[in-house]
Structure formats: structure tokens, C-alpha cells
Amino acid sequence: MPLAIDVLTLFPRMLDGFLAESILGKGIAAGYLGVKVHDLRAWATDKHRTADDRPFGGGAGMVLKPEPVFAAIEQLQTPGCRRIYLTPDGLPLSPAMAQSLARERHLIFLSGHYEGIDQRIRDHVIDQEVSIGDYVLTNGTLAAAVVIDALARFIPGVLGEEKSLTHESFSSKLLDFPQYTRPAEFRGMSVPEVLLSGNHAEIEKWRAARQMEKTRQVRPDLLN
Ligand code: 6GU
Predict the structure, then answer these.
(1) Number of Cβ atoms within 10 Å of the Cβ of 85
(2) Domains identified in the chain, total number
(3) Dihedral (CA of 87, 90, 95, 98) sign
(4) What is the pLDDT of residues 36-71, one digit of tens each?
(5) Does ligand 1 come within 6 angstroms of the Cβ of 92?
(6) Ligand 1 close to Cβ of residue 184 (< 6 A)
(7) What is the pLDDT of residues 193-207, one digit of tens each?
(8) How many CB atoms lie under 10 A from the CB of residue 51?
(9) Which of the two residues, 113 and 187, has the higher pLDDT score?
(10) Across the beta sheet with 3-9, what order do the strands follow?
């Protein structure tokens, strides 16, 4: 059974292009995973389809109401599914987290307002809270897309070539080496000679050196 993903959001159309395009779109079309996007307002019962309200205790912004979210999650959840809330105060997304999410059978992603959601949702119908980094987005929908993209790479078959997974940044804890393709000379800019040499030992050495150099410059924190 392919991994089933439900996304609950106030902005479902933000995901239209994302789900249709590229490697992820192909993975979905090929049946390696299924993603359904739901508009939270579908579970709002009042005539204005209200999904948010002003915070008790005062303050700026709006807070996602409990009723539509509880109703949505209670309808969509299955035994053993993982219910994930995207929030800047969640646990940071890591390759290990993406890989472990890729092994689940059913994930529900809840995207809220950046101002927040009623705490009773987090206390009672959420299993895991995830952040994609130390910056604040206007809502979690793009964060859900990022987590889905990152985990999809760990589903066997989604990346045509299994090799491309292991060779990339962060599986080796070093940043990537530079890549070149034809032409070997473009507007006077040449491809490094060693890459044209056919000497695979030398190419590996050159790439490892570039990885060390790049990592030392940009992410020295990865070296300890
Ligand atoms: Cl998961 N949501 C929002 N709104 N902002 C974020 C985030 C999530 N992760 C980093 N910034």
C-alpha cells in the first residue's frame, strides 16, 4: 500500500502546482504515494464557514478554531496514522525525520495560521509538531509541501535512480561538489580539466576536495 497523505489547510490551491509538477507529481501519478488536499472550511458549520476567531486574552491576529479541525481529523484519521502540525515552534525537520515519516502508512498534515491554533487541537488531535526552519511563514501550507517533498525522496521508486539519494548533501554530512555538463567550453568558461580526463580516481579526489572546501566556507558547523 502506498503512503497516504491528507493535508488540511485554509489555502488548498497553494499546493496545486506543487503536487502536479516534477518528481513529486510523477511519484503521485505512478502511485508511490497519494496526496489529498482538503479545505478546512469544508468542516466549518456556520453560514460564513468560519474557521478562525479572535484570541482569548487579547492580542493580534486570528486563531484556528477547534471545531472544524477536530471534525476534519476525526473524519480523516485511521488507526495508527500520524497527525502532524506544521509550526515554527515544532521539532526541526531533519533527514532522519523525513526518512521515518516516509515509512508511515498514513500521514495527516495540519497547516494553521502563523498566529496560531487553539491549544486544545495540539493537546488532543496532534501527534507531532514540525518546523522547517528558524523563520516564520504566513501559514504552514508551504511547510507541509516542504516536508512532503523531503519525505517523498525516501519512498523507494520516487527517485528513479536510487544512487541519487546517497550521493547528495546531508547523507554524507558534506555539501555537494560542483556539477558541469556540455559544452566543455561556454563563452570562454571551461569545465575543470579533471572531469574530462576519464580518470575516475582523480575525479573522486577532486570532488571530495571541493566538498570539503565548500563545507568549510558555507557550513563549518557540519564538520564537527
Ligand atoms: Cl511549519 N509554519 C510556519 N507558519 N512558519 C514556519 C514553519 C512552519 N517552519 C518554519 N517557519
Answers:
(1) 25
(2) 2
(3) negative
(4) 999 999 999 999 999 999 999 999 999 999 999 999
(5) no
(6) no
(7) 999 999 999 999 999
(8) 23
(9) 187
(10) 33-39, 3-9, 106-111, 82-92, 128-131
